[in-house]
């Protein structure tokens, strides 16, 4: 991933990426891949027990909300998760969208990756993009209520929203061995507090579940019913008046 590292260093110099070590950004993105692969294959690990939910998701596209510097989208594109054949980098900033376009060309990913230079609210109201993805990922897009409202209209029934969760206060991220993979925790009060079940249900999601991968935390929400037509609200409204 030498080319990717160079691009991410450039992105950090431009202010598109935080000042953490590049490898940490890549490791975090790789955790997304582990979670998405487990979800798409219908297999997960809850505690120490493997489970099979019998609801294998169809092959499809993945949308990276607020792709910014391409984390996690570009990392996922270089090693696509199970069942993902197309990745869409959704970015509302014209400058960052142009940078992502050039990065895709340099990494020779143009056949499988597309940059969508639109606000998420507009994409969710566009017929060709509404209910188009089987997975949406978000790393630092906004508050949970903003992420949920902007992601739900883009997802198909049975699709998944995978969101980076902050570490617990005082918690140090300790990398896990690759063979640990992704695992679903049996319960998590912290995730439920950030993603209130009644509020996410209004958007069509089942209650959020906490996953761990590579030492990082993720919230996973599944689309159980179609997102109501009234969502997303007008551009900028989700951030100004979050649903929760």
Helix-strand category: alpha/beta
Sketch the topology as an H/E string, one letter per element. Answer: HHEEEHEHEHEHEEHHEEH
Q: Tell me the fraction of residues in β-strands, as a range.
A: 15-25%
What is the name of the CATH class? Alpha Beta
Describe, in short, the structure shown.
Helices cover 32% and strands 23% of the residues. The protein is built from 9 helices and 10 strands. It has helices spanning 2-13, 22-40, 73-78, 94-106, 120-125, 144-151, 189-194, 197-201, 237-240; strands at residues 43-46, 49-52, 60-65, 84-90, 113-116, 133-138, 155-165, 182-184, 209-213, 216-222.
Structural description of this entry:
The protein is α/β, with parallel strands linked by helices. It has one domain (2-240): Vaccinia Virus protein VP39 (Rossmann fold, 3-Layer(aba) Sandwich). Helices cover 32% and strands 23% of the residues. It has nine helices and ten strands. It has helices at residues 2-13, 22-40, 73-78, 94-106, 120-125, 144-151, 189-194, 197-201, 237-240; strands spanning 43-46, 49-52, 60-65, 84-90, 113-116, 133-138, 155-165, 182-184, 209-213, 216-222. The chain has an eight-stranded mixed β-sheet. It has a two-stranded antiparallel ribbon with strand order 1-2. The longest helix is centred in the N-terminal third of the chain and has 19 residues, at 22-40.
Strand and helix map with partners:
Layout lengths: L1 H12 L8 H19 L2 E4 L2 E4 L7 E6 L7 H6 L5 E7 L3 H13 L6 E4 L3 H6 L7 E6 L5 H8 L3 E11 L16 E3 L4 H6 L2 H5 L7 E5 L2 E7 L14 H4 L4
Parallel strand pairs: 3-4, 3-6, 4-5, 6-7
Antiparallel strand pairs: 1-2, 7-10, 8-9, 9-10
